[in-house]
Design a protein that fits this description.
Cofactor: Zn(2+); Mn(2+); Fe(2+)
Strand content: 15-25%
Helix content: 40-55%
Strand order of the largest sheet: 4-3-5
CATH superfamily of the largest domain: Winged helix-like DNA-binding domain superfamily/Winged helix DNA-binding domain
Family: Belongs to the Fur family.
Protein name: Fur family transcriptional regulator
Order of helices and strands: HHHEEEEHEH
Keywords: DNA-binding, Iron, Metal-binding, Repressor, Transcription, Transcription regulation, Zinc
GO molecular function: DNA-binding transcription factor activity; transcription cis-regulatory region binding; zinc ion binding
CATH topology of the largest domain: Arc Repressor Mutant, subunit A
CATH class of the largest domain: Mainly Alpha
Structural class: alpha+beta
CATH architecture of the largest domain: Orthogonal Bundle
Number of helices: 5
Number of domains: 2
Amino acid sequence: MTPQRQLVLEAVDTLEHATPDDILGEVRRTASGVNISTVYRTLELLEELGLVSHAHLGHGAPTYHLADRHHHIHLVCRDCTNVIEADLSVAAEFTAKLREQFGFDTDMKHFAIFGRCEDCSLKASSAES
């Protein structure tokens, strides 16, 4: 693996749910000559090799994380943009119903649910009081 590709992989590991721009910023801390097209090409290759996985956590660029981590659902807070990883078991009943009623087999590794995290819910509740 080339040094630039290794830096991209390390940035994905360090940043967890990171966009290509975030990854570029992290890589440039070590190698200032790397450009965004290199990051995109490297992410595509790393995904083909099964080393990274992406998810769409809202509008804009996908986010990337290491593929060897357990599969999980992304819970995305619309207020603070924090991402919480929830075990797939929390959606087992939901996915079973989709399979049963529609014959639909879900790909949960690209699944995101949007809402409000506990901290932001508490802040919103206290602001309404």
